[in-house]
Amino acid sequence: MNDCYQHLLSKARDAKRDGHGAWTVQSTGERVAVALVLSRADWLAEMDYSIAEAIERTGPEWVALIPQVARQLADEED
User: Fold this and answer.
1) Contact 9/72 with Cβ under 8 angstroms?
2) How far is the C-alpha of 50 from the C-alpha of 42, rounded, in Å?
3) Which of 65, 78, 74 is closest to 2 using CA atoms?
4) Which of 27, 38, 52, 69 is deepest in the core (most CB within 10 A)?
5) Which residue ranges make up each domain of the chain?
């Protein structure tokens, strides 16, 4: 796994485990990507981002990782 994957996974785990408070202390880019991973449209709306804007803001490298990170988080629940 590459460094970007590990970084996004770590940030998403934190927000999934600790909720909104853990998410709000992340950088803007991290918050947007994590909201996409966790399917939190409400968090994106709080930042005034549409889903399309969030995808654009996140960039192709992290967007490509989002499905993998989401799957890993779901697998960890099992």
Assistant:
1) yes
2) 10
3) 65
4) 69
5) 3-77
